[in-house]
Design a protein that fits this description.
Layout lengths: L3 E5 L4 H12 L3 E6 L6 H9 L4 E5 L5 H14 L3 E6 L14 H29 L2 E6 L11 H21 L4 E8 L5 H10 L3 H9 L10 H11 L11 E4 L6
Parallel strand pairs: 1-2, 1-4, 2-3, 4-5, 5-6, 6-7
Length: about 250
């Protein structure tokens, strides 16, 4: 059975890899990001492999934009029953330097965005009697210097996930979270830039702290999302999976 998936923040990085993987699993995929044009490469990759995908531009923190995007996706691809809330930004700084805008923008994209998207999609999931929600958390949810806003948002994603699992389970909908460790993406490149170090050196340094001896890649997270979105994962809900190459503390 072909299902429709929405992946937010899917123009690049973890979101793009997840959209491509879910398409390979046989789902039609809406590749959603702030700027529709930036989704073209991900969509082309999916369609070149024989899959179905559309690019959708929307601000996940804007309720009207989210409603319009989900309606469009339902019309063009079919009712969405798989949702991966991946959209996110960083505005790192130590607490005394962090501005109110730094705080508000990060909380808004991550938490408000996940809330608005989940609320819009759950109607289709409940009608179908089946659904999957995967929320992207982070090892930063455990606390990370210079990321008070991001850590709070990612910890909030875990509580949000567990609550969705309780509320939606009776309708055949599961909700799980993935908490990546160090993943090689444009976002982690920006962290290296902020610290004033070469990205390759940053990767090498971070990999030394990982039990398996390497940095993670977007495809590692996509593989975990693929499982959570599968038929076989129907008895797994409310879980937080740390995909970090080793134990977390």
């Amino acid at each position: 059975m072909t299902r429709t998936a929405i992946v937010t923040g899917a123009a690049r990085g973890i979101g793009a890899a997840t959209a491509i993987r879910l398409a390979a699993d046989g789902n039609a995929v809406a590749v959603l990001d702030l700027d529709e044009a930036t989704c073209a490469v991900t969509v082309k990759t999916v369609t070149a492999a024989g899959g179905r995908a559309i690019a959708v531009g929307a601000d996940v923190a804007d309720a009207d934009a989210v409603a319009a995007a989900v309606d469009r996706i339902a019309d063009e691809l079919g009712a969405p029953t798989i949702l991966v809330n991946n959209a996110g930004i960083i505005r790192d700084n130590l607490l005394f330097r962090m501005t109110e805008n730094d705080w508000d923008s990060v909380i808004s994209v991550h938490l408000r965005g996940a809330f608005l998207m989940s609320r819009a999609v759950q109607k289709h999931q409940v009608d179908a009697g089946w659904g999957r929600v995967v929320n992207l958390s982070s090892t930063s949810a455990l606390g990370n210097r210079g990321q008070a806003n991001y850590a709070a948002a990612k910890a909030g994603m875990q509580g949000f996930t567990k609550t969705l699992a309780f509320e939606l389970g009776r309708y055949g909908v599961t909700a799980n979270a993935i908490a990546p460790g160090f993943i090689v993406t444009d976002m982690t490149r920006s962290t290296a830039d902020r610290l004033g170090v070469e990205f390759d050196d940053f990767i090498e340094h971070m990999a030394k702290e990982v039990a398996v001896g390497r940095a993670g890649h977007p495809e590692d997270i996509a593989a975990a999302a693929s499982f959570f979105c599968s038929e076989e994962a129907g008895f797994v809900s409310g879980q937080v999976l740390y995909v970090a190459g080793g134990p977390t503390s």
